[in-house]
Amino acid sequence: MSNAEDITPSPYRRTHTCGELRPTHVGANVVLTGWVNTYRDHGTGLIFIDLRDRYGLTQVVFEKGESPEELLTRSDKLRGEDVIAVEGKVRIRKGGPNPKLETGEIEVVVTRLELLNKTDTPPFVPDETTDLPNEELRLKYRYIDLRRPTMQRILSKRHRVMQVTRRYFDEHGFLEVETPILYKSTPEGAREFLVPSRHQPSDWYALPQSPQLFKQILMVSGCDRYMQICRCFRDEDPRADRQAEFSQIDLEMSFVQRDDVMNLIEGFIRRLWKEVAGFDPPPFPRMKYRDAMERFGIDRPDTRFDLFIQDISDIAAKTDFKVFKDALAKGADAPRYASRRGVVKAIRVPAGGGAEKLTRKLTDGYSEWIKGFGAGGVAVVKLNAQGTFETGIAKFVEVPGIKEEFISTLALKPGDTVLFVADTYAIATKSIGELRLKIARDVGLVPPSGPEGGPWNFLWVIDFPMFERNKETGKWVASHHPFTAPLPEQQKKFVEASLDDDDTIESMVSAGYDVVLNGSEIGGGSIRIHDQAVQSKVFALLGLTPEQAKEKFSFLLEALRYGAPPHGGLAFGLDRLVMHLVGTDNIRDVIAFPKTQTGADLMTRAPSHVTDQQLKDLHVKSTWVPTPKT
RNA sequence: GGGGCGGUAGCUCAAUUGGUUAGAGUACCGGACUGUCGAUCCGGUGGUUGGGGGUUCGAGUCCCCUCCGCCUCGCCA
After folding, report:
1. pLDDT digits (tens, 9 = 90+) for A170-203
2. CA atom of A240 to C1′ atom of B5, Å
3. Predicted pLDDT of residue A4
4. Which nucleotide C1' is nearest A471 CA?
5. Taking 80 as the threshold, does the pLDDT of residue A471 lie above it?
6. From the alpha carbon of A50, which nucleotide's C1' atom is closest?
7. DSSP-assigned letters across all residues of A511-559
8. Which nucleotide shows the minimum CA-to-C1' distance to residue A477?
9. Domain boundaries along the sequence of chain A
10. Residue A476 pLDDT > 50, yes or no?
11. Which of A172, A228, A268, A428 is the most buried (most CB within 10 A)?
12. CATH code for A305-442?
């Protein structure tokens, strides 16, 4: 490492950044470096250049009489994105201040210019005033796109999030421990990326979906408190808020119960938002999974708007509406909340709260739209100003006896619109939950997000079911992951339960918890199983034989036998946290070098071909056959 | 794997039922201009309409195949 003091100072070593100079610097001789943002050429006598770096913009001026004659000629050739260094004197702007710039009161009269690097004409300019080029081009020339102040701010905010995170957990006694990227395939959950082993022909590493098992092992190791900002990999199709390669803030703690983790995490999020967003969130409400599903139709409720869902099966049964009757006939023998049991769910859109914007065209469209979620359609009714039901299924509810019950149950007022979905519990709940969100978007109930936008509604969702039935196979699957513990008071019941005791198994509630922000899951975790008997029971329920469980997770099962402390933890999606903090719904905006939907990096052009020799070394042969050109 | 949207000058976009030489703004090149700040004014260069095939007298436009990007369902313990 060379010592900076030992380097001969360049005549153009900068003295200030482009965001720094103020009237207090007037008279100083300064050197600035950066990119030519814009140039305004008034002829040989006067040229303005806005010089840009990460810190801001400063106007530098070449002026006849003040700048050397040869500079006037040379500066005439400067173009956007050239990299230059200028030396000159700071002075108050002759043409008056530019209030749009932090440095807008001053300018630098250039006495020396060095063209550090002439640019090719850039494919686009990193300018916030012109229309952005399409994302494909932005990704190909990511280094130009990242020069935009907006992108620089995002990079810097992401950096802040990581710094606050490390500081907070350090203050609370956490050790940051790195865990392997070349890991073992554990083929539950997401599809994995595989890496062939050179030393062990035909064997493969997998890239971790998360460091889950390692962090539990670290607890067995006596680490007590672990955290890591780590990269995770899931070879599934991306979405606007999802990349195959993403980052987690991962943590785990020993000798804790659910509340200990939740309190510490809540402190973290509140600190993070205070320091990065300047917002101090109130204590997070806690909502049970069942309540979330009943009132919001989703396990990550967006509570920024008050559209509530209600189960109105009892009244619906009294109507003569065939759609309701047919739905309610499904699984009538099944217990309440059973996924196959028929229900009728309603959502009330209040007058003055969006009902007037729910046009016939919109509500007609919902029936078609909701079929995408498996529901048959959406029934609609309005209570008009005279207190009479009209449109849609009015004739089925404008019935003495039924009408009053409808109005009182749903607390209807004149002008309200009610939408209904009738189907099995599973389908009706999910689809009316989606409908709630769609209505909110359609009638403008969703506040703008981000730093300048609407509220930050944090909440905890707790008491998740431990197991769900897989729709196709009918087998039990872990709702969270197979290492999630049941609530302590249920543990005994669970261990003693018979594998075919469906009622007991379905009633098991896990010690898991999710952090939800404005309808988006930003983190989740649980207290883990530290007892081998419980862990074996879970594996048995999931249909894993002891041999299979041993093959896949022997190291964990073994570790649990050697003095595993009770432990629990949580992981945040770092990218999603940053998305909220910067107010974007595009995850690629918060990743410096993101990938496309087909997993391509348009800048480096990864993935790419490798040589036959490389494959041979790895004992790998491709079976892919190109489709013949026609 | 399914559904939807998009790809026209370096960039952002336009182009009537299929019809003249595919236009505009911006960038770029040249010129004018001493107070601009998205400078202005004058002139100019710039096109495999993503690629391939087809229908037609004639295709940016219609049909088929294909590539790429985005959104979405499935998927994401």
Report:
1. 999 999 999 999 999 987 789 999 999 999 999 9
2. 15
3. 43
4. B74
5. no
6. B37
7. SEEEEEETTEEEEEEEEBP--HHHHHHHHHHTT--HHHHHHHHHHHHHH
8. B77
9. 4-117, 305-442
10. yes
11. A428
12. 3.30.1360.30
Between residues A24 and A127, the one the model is more confident about: A24
> What's the CA–C1' distance between A523 and B61, in Å?
49
Lowest mean pLDDT segment, chosen from A12-21, A150-159, A370-379, A512-521: A370-379
User: CA A348 → C1' B1, Å?
Assistant: 37
Q: How far does the CA of A584 sit from the C1' of B37, in Å?
A: 29
CA distance A126 to A144: 6
Closest amino acid to nucleotide B74 (CA–C1'): A237
Strand B positions with any atom < 7 Å from protein CB? 1, 10-13, 26-29, 32-40, 65, 68-77
ipTM, two decimals:
0.93
Nearest nucleotide relative to A59: CA against C1': B37
Given a cut of 90, whether residue A226 has pLDDT beyond it is yes
Distance CA A462 to C1' B33 in A: 70
Whether the per-residue pLDDT at A7 is higher than 60: the answer is no
Closest nt to residue A79, judged CA to C1': B28
- Residue A35 (CA) to nucleotide B31 (C1'), in angstroms, measures 26
What pLDDT is recorded for position A542?
87
Using an 8 Å Cβ cutoff, are A63 and A45 in contact? yes
CATH of A4-117, one of 3.40.47.10, 2.40.50.140, 2.40.30.200, 1.10.3720.10: 2.40.50.140
Cα gap A434→A421, rounded to integer Å: 11
When pLDDT is averaged across residues A510-516 and rounded to a whole number, the result is 95
Report the distance from CA of residue A368 to the C1' of nucleotide B3 in Å, as an integer: 14
Q: In what order do the strands lie in the sheet with A245-254?
A: A175-176, A225-233, A245-254, A567-573, A520-527, A512-517, A458-462, A286-288
Residue nearest to nucleotide B65 (CA to C1'): A630
Of residues A622 and A295, more confidently modeled: A295
The DSSP code sequence of A330-362 is: TTTTSPTT-TTSEEEEEEEE-TTTTGGG--HHH
